[in-house]
C-alpha cells in the first residue's frame, strides 16, 4: 500500500479491518516495524482525535512522528501554479511538499475544503498536490472530499457489533448543525458502507443530497422515521448542502436523533465521528445510553491508523 | 496513588518530598518505570514551565507524553450537563474526557478558573469532570482551586534549605499585580505548608483574605513588616480578592518586596513560583541576590512531577 | 564547540561542512551520541523548516528535543534590565533563560529582529541574553543579525556542486518582496562565503547596502546583469534597507530573477533559503528547472544541524 486516501476495494478493506482488530487485541504486535522511519503529520486545519490517535498508532509501530500545524496565517500555502506571490501566501505548496517529502518517509495530511470553491474542493486539489510534489506515501487525515481513516475505524466498529449471519442495515442520518460542515465524513461513510457490501439508507431533508458518486446504490429516504425502521446501525452526521455548495438550508422538521425516535427499534446502535453537538445532533439519552458506539469508534481510530501505517511500512 | 490533585496527608507528602529528592540525586533511577504507558498533558490554558518539567519528568521514567493544547477557540469544551450545544462550544467534556481516557494511561490537566463564576470555580468542576469521565488517574497541572505540583516542588525546596532542628517560619506575602490572578498557588501553598506542619503567616492588605478552608490555623497579618520578622522563608505571590470574587482592590501601601524590607532579616530565603513581574511583585535586588530560591523551585518542578508520576505508576 | 551563533574561522567551517556531508551519507552514524541529553528549541518567531530539520538532526543523534513556542502574547518576554514589569510582558528573559538552562543541556533559539530598533537588533541582545543567563551551550536558529545554520547548509550545498579546481564566483542577488525582511540570511551568507574564501559579488539596488561589517571584501555591484556574468552560484534573497533601518525603498528596475536573465550563463546554479515568493523573488522557470538547488539546501539543513549538535555534544 503506497497511499491511503479512499476506499479501494472490498478485499483491501477487509484486510485492513482484520489487521486493525489484531492490533486492538495486541497493539504492540509489531513494535519495531517503523524503526528508523519518520511520519510527518501536516495539519492545514485543527485536530485533536486524529492527531493523537495517529501519533499513538505510529508509536505502537516504533515509527517516529512529527506534527506540523500549518493552519496559522504565518504559513499560509499558495496552491495555484504560476501565481505571482505578492499577497499573504508565504510559500508554494510545491516547495513545501517537496521539502516535507525529503524530511519524512510518510506524510499524513489534513486539508479541509473551503466550502466556497466547489471545483477546487471536489478535485481534492490540496491533497493531490501533496501527493504529486512530496514523492512519498501520503495518508489522508481528512481531505476536502473524504475522511477514510474515520470510515475505516467506523467499519471496524461495525464489524465488532455486527449481528451474526446477517447483512446489516446501515442508516446515515443527517443531523442539524449551526455551521456549514464539510461532506467528507458522510461521503466516506457511504463509500465504505456500500464498498463493504452493507445495505445503506441515507436519510436527510430534501435539498441535502450528497454528491451522487458517493450515493449511487444507496436508498435515499427523506422520511427519517421510515429510514430508522429495522436499522442495525444509525450513523448521525451533519453536512452542508452540496448544491448550492456549502450552504445551510432552512429545515422545518426535527432531525435531532433521540431515544424517542428509536423506541420501536431496540437493537439499533448509534454512531457519530465526534465531536458531537449534544442535543442538537444527538440527544443525551442516546449518547449516555447503551446504544452509543461513539467512544468505541474514537478508540478504534488508533487501530485503523495503525493498520494503515503498518500496510504502508510493509 | 491514583490521583494527584491536592495535599492528602503528611505521610504521603513526606514520602513524595523524599522521593523527589532521590530523583534529583539520580533522575534516571527508574528509566523503564513508565515503559509502554502514555501520559496525556491537557492544557486548557497556556503553560511553559509546567509542560516542560512534566514532560521531562515523564521522559526520565520512560513514560511517553503527548501535549494537547485545548485553549484555542476551535476546541472550546462545553462543561454543563444537558446543554443544547448550539453556540460556540464544539465538544462536551464528557465526550472529550472519555476519548482521552481511552487513549492515555494517565491524564494531567491544567484548567484555570474563570474568576467570574465563583461557584463553578470553587467546586473545581472542570477538574472533577475530567476525573469523573476519563476513568484514568488524573494529575492536576493547576486547577481553579489548587496547584499541587507547584506546592510539592516548593516543599522540596524548603526541605533542601530548612534550618536544621527548627520548625521553620514560613510567610506567604501578597504582592501587587496588574491583572486579576487566580488563588490556586496561594491556596495550595497554605495547604501544604500547614499540612507539612510549618508555622505559617499570611500577610496581605485587608480585603485580600483567601478562602478560609485554606487559611485556618495560619496567622493572618495585615502588616507586612511585622510578618517578615524572623521569617525563614518568604513566599511572594499575587492573588485577586476572594470576596468580591476575582476583583482587584485599591491598595495604598507598598507591598513590593525588596531587600530594604528584609534588611533586619538576614536569613530569610525568598520564593516565587514564576513567572514573576520584576519590580512589581519582587525587586531585582532580591531576585538576583543570594536569598532567591526561585530557580531552585523551578528546577524542582521536574522532580516533584517525577515523584508523583512514579507514585501513580507504582 | 560550545556555541554556534556565527562563522568562526575557515578550519571550523570546513570541518563542519565535511561532518555534515558524512552525516548525509550516513545519518545514523552516531545514534547514541546525545543519549540522556536534552535539547530545548525556543521559538520567539514561527518556524517550519528550521524546527523540523533540527528535530530530525537531534533524533539522528539520539538527542531528545522539546519545542517551546514563545511567540504568543501569553509568554511575551521582558528583555530590559531593571524594568518595572507592569505592562504586557509576563516574564523576564533572565528568569526564563535561567529556568530553560536548568531544564536542558543545549538550547537552540530563534529570535528575529524588530526591524524598528536598530541598536537593539544589531547588538543581537536577545540571543546574547539567552547565552548570558542560560549557562548552557546555545545554537542560533536565526537571530536578529545572523542565520548561521542556514549558511552552513548553503556552504554544504555549494561544496556538493562546486566546479572542480576553481574558486567559485558566488553572487548574492537582492530580490523584491512585499514585506520588510530581516538581514540575517544575507549577512550570514556573505560572512560564510567570504569566510570560506569564495569570490563574492553582492548585487542590489542602490540604497540596499548591507551592514559593512559583513560586506567588506565583497564586490558590490548595482547592475544585476553584470553581477550575474560568470556566476557559479546565484543566491537570491530579499532584505529590507539597513539604512534607513528596516524600510522598503522604491525600486524601479526589475530585480526578479528568471531564466531570461541567465540565458548567457548556462552553468549558474540558483539558491534560495525558502520560503520563496514565486515570480516575485524567483521565477517558476528557475525554481522548477535544473539550476535550482533550493530543495538540496532544505535537505542539507538536517545535516548542518546534525554536524553542529554533534560538535557541541563532543
From TrEMBL, chains A, B, C:
E.C. no: 2.1.3.11
Entry binding sites for N(2)-succinyl-L-ornithine: 142, 177, 237, 277
InterPro entries named among the record's database cross-references: ArgF'-like, Asp/Orn_carbamoyltranf_P-bd, Asp/Orn_carbamoylTrfase, Asp/Orn_carbamoylTrfase_sf, Asp_carbamoyltransf_Asp/Orn-bd
Occurrences of domain Aspartate/ornithine carbamoyltransferase carbamoyl-P binding (ranges): 11-160
Keywords: Amino-acid biosynthesis, Arginine biosynthesis, Transferase
Domain of life: Bacteria
Residues at which carbamoyl phosphate binds: 47-50, 75, 110, 147-150, 273-274, 301
Pathway: Amino-acid biosynthesis; L-arginine biosynthesis
Domain Aspartate/ornithine carbamoyltransferase Asp/Orn-binding: 185-310
Reactions the enzyme catalyzes: N(2)-succinyl-L-ornithine + carbamoyl phosphate = N(2)-succinyl-L-citrulline + phosphate + H(+)
Family matches, as Gene3D superfamilies: Aspartate/ornithine carbamoyltransferase
One Pfam family linked to the record: OTCace
Function: Catalyzes the transfer of the carbamoyl group from carbamoyl phosphate to the delta-amino group of N(2)-succinyl-L-ornithine to produce N(2)-succinyl-L-citrulline. Is essential for arginine biosynthesis.
Subunit structure: Homotrimer.
PANTHER family reported for this sequence: ORNITHINE CARBAMOYLTRANSFERASE, MITOCHONDRIAL (PTHR45753), ORNITHINE TRANSCARBAMYLASE, MITOCHONDRIAL (PTHR45753:SF3)
Entry similarity comment: Belongs to the aspartate/ornithine carbamoyltransferase superfamily. SOTCase family.
Protein name as it appears in the record: N-succinylornithine carbamoyltransferase
Organism: Negadavirga shengliensis
